[in-house]
Structure formats: structure tokens, C-alpha cells
Design goal:
2 domains; 212 residues; four-stranded antiparallel sheet; mainly beta; five-stranded mixed sheet; single chain
Amino acid sequence: MPPPPPPPSIAVTVTPKNGSVLLGNTATFSATVTNTTDTSVNWSVNGMAGGSPVVCTITHDGVYTSPADLPSPANVQIAATSHADVTKSDSAAVTVTSDISLSVTPNPASVELGAVQGFHTTVASSGHPDTAVRWSVSGAGCASGCGAVDASGNYPAPPILPSPPSVTLTAQSVADPSKQISSAVSVTSTFSLQISAPSNVPAGGRRRLLQH
């Protein structure tokens, strides 16, 4: 009698095969293993078991959590490998997406020479992204510097009036650097200089000029 045919090979099927997930959100994948009683799998992200801080993590149940900051490239591969036969696996393609929008207040704004104006940014998203922003200051009159915004959003105006007396403050999303918003700031000055002197000075005399 001819020998019995070999048993069918183990096969792994991951569903869904592709999809997208917003920054910081989750997506659930399932793996079906056939032709074996051991249907368990090991999950990986971009070839790393369980994922990594950059592309984020996947649980043993197939729940993938996307990172808070947009990875580059934004495409990741989710794979399930058979526990019974590590040569058998299947994968899914996932795109990490961003719907971030930014707002800043006040906008526009004005600040007196040497004074401090606070700015507040709001990062809106249906996901759960990193809400940090990077600030920058620019302006035609800023060749010698027009100050900087600190980590709390406070902008100290320069002590010398720039020309023209305006600057632009820009907040850029850390999670998605393609998203940014700017606020136009007018630098004002109420400084006045007054000099007083006596109406007449005798010949050869001296009088002190007073500056206010």
C-alpha cells in the first residue's frame, strides 16, 4: 500500500489585511491558525516581538496601539507567527494617521517692550496624540533676535523695538510636524523721553538738564 499523504501544512491568516489608525488609538487584529491543535500565535510590529516605543505595541490578543508621535514612515506591518511552526505567518499593513489641528490664543496679540505675554495652544484630535508643541519666533526686524517662547508659552518682548515692530510666533506640533499655527504679535512702546531746561541761562553760567 502507498504511504499515507503528509498532513496539510499549518496556515496562518490575519484579518483585517490592512487599515489605518489615528495617533494614540487602537486597532484589533485576529489570527486564524489551521491544520493544528495549537492555534496560538506570537504578534510582532515591524519584525519586533510585541512592538517598540517608536512603532508602539501589540498585545498577545492582537490589540495594536499606535504611537503618540507620527513615525516615519507612517506605515507599519503587523505580523502573527504560528507558535506550532515559526516558519508560518501572515501579516497586515497599517497606516498611522493624524487628524491634528492647532489653535493658539491670543491671536493676534500685542505686547509692550520688555513685557511678557502668555500664549496658549490647543491640540485637537480624535486620537490621543502627543500634545507638546515647539515654538519659534520670526520677523523682518529680528536680525539681532526678538526673543523666544519658553516651555510654558510665555513670550518676553525684546527690550529694543524691532523695525518693523512686529513678530510672528509659530507653534508646531511635536506629534505631527506638518501641523502648525502662527500668531501675529505687535511689539508696542509707550516709552517717552522728556527733557526740561530753564528758559534762560546767564552768560558763563551752567544749568542741569533734567531727563524724564
